[in-house]
Write a structure and sequence with these properties.
Elements lengths: L1 H18 L3 H4 L3 H15 L4 E6 L10 H10 L2 E7 L6 H10 L3 E5 L13 H11 L4 E8 L9 H18 L3 E6 L2 H11 L6 E3 L6 H9 L2 E5 L8 H10 L5 E3 L48 H12 L3 H15 L10
Parallel strand pairs: 1-2, 2-3, 3-4, 4-5, 5-6, 6-7, 7-8
Length: about 325
């Protein structure tokens, strides 16, 4: 009932803003809109949420992190799995996890950066993971897309295998990136698996036919705003194959802005590419490809996954949170017991 009342008030103000040409309407600035967004998000907070994959250490948003965490927490987010991508940002991820208890650190070598690795990268990765018992592994993976196709897939596979075996040895989950390389990924997981402590396929956009074979190797399927760019037909077919005990949700913030009406989203303060005012943000096409994703937008992802799967939002929320807690509970974990 509270949510309905707040949403009614917000929607009423939005209509007045669009329809009025008064000076008051003209002064409806971005700070006012941000307040209304947060009011709506706060009203929607219910079951706890676990952001299974994000990059809050990203230089584009790290200076705004306190306000981003506060807003996301108000929507119900309890934990953030923050993934490092190379030797350059592991220490920053570690520092953030020490400053914010809700951040679970993850250290890994992303396929985009394998050519920049040092000769000691694997020893450094092992040292980080052994020295930070709260940490999981990631982001690792394979990429044959626009950015990854210039990097030897054989080298990518070799680097991935080392990280998979390390995660298995340390009995921790590993978060995996995969773009146009599912054949190689499936072969690799089959060769080295299964992975009883979990292989998280983040921002999963694979086919329905891939789900069961990957699940047999210990895969979990994590969905971000990128799912909203997939055709509804493909998304529904694939999600029907994903069992509730294998589903996760994430933001991949500051990337993966959901392709939904901009007025339903929260925006990173100071983002020059975000819709500045409601009048500039009426359609999906109005969202710039350079806009930053706010971690509070995980609620939108949750709603979309539930709608595509055809089940209650609370059911998806409960399952995703339970699955993530199980994955990120290991000796030394912040959320142990």
């Amino acid at each position: 009932e509270t949510e309905m009342r707040i949403n009614f008030i917000v929607d009423f103000i939005i209509v007045l803003h669009h329809d009025s040409h008064s000076e008051e309407a003209k002064n409806f600035n971005s700070s006012t809109w941000s307040f209304l967004q947060q009011a709506r998000m706060h009203a929607r907070a219910g079951l706890p949420i676990f952001d299974a994959h994000c990059h809050l250490q990203d230089p584009r948003i790290v200076n705004a992190l306190p306000s981003l965490l506060e807003a996301a927490t108000r929507t119900g987010v309890k934990w953030f799995a923050v993934n490092g991508t190379s030797e350059d940002d592991w220490e920053e991820v570690k520092k953030l996890s020490e400053q914010h208890n809700e951040i679970i650190p993850c250290f890994g070598l992303h396929p985009w950066y394998v050519e920049r690795r040092s000769n000691q990268w694997f020893e450094r990765l092992r040292s980080m993971l052994e020295g930070v018992p709260t940490a999981a592994v990631g982001e690792a993976g394979l990429d044959k897309g626009a950015r990854g196709k210039e990097i030897s897939i054989a080298v990518q596979v070799d680097v991935l295998k080392q990280q998979l075996m390390l995660a298995k040895e340390l009995q921790r989950p590993i978060s995996l990136h995969c773009v146009r390389a599912f054949g190689e990924l499936q072969e690799t997981l089959k060769e080295l698996g299964p992975f009883p402590h979990g292989a998280i396929l983040h921002s999963f956009l694979g086919s329905a036919e891939m789900v069961q074979p990957l699940a047999k190797q210990g895969a979990f399927f994590s969905f971000s705003g990128f799912l909203t760019a997939l055709s509804a037909k493909k998304a529904k077919k694939m999600l029907q194959e994903v069992p509730l005990d294998r589903i996760l949700i994430e933001t991949d913030a500051p990337d993966a802005v959901p392709k939904v009406e901009p007025s339903s989203l929260m925006w990173v303060p100071g983002d020059a590419n975000a819709p500045a005012q409601l009048s500039d943000a009426g359609k999906v096409e109005d969202i710039s490809s350079q806009a930053l994703n706010h971690p509070a937008n995980i609620k939108t992802v949750l709603t979309y996954v539930a709608s595509m799967k055809g089940i209650e939002e609370d059911t998806v929320a409960s399952a995703a949170y339970r699955n993530a807690k199980q994955l990120f509970t290991y000796p030394g974990s912040k959320i142990r017991a």
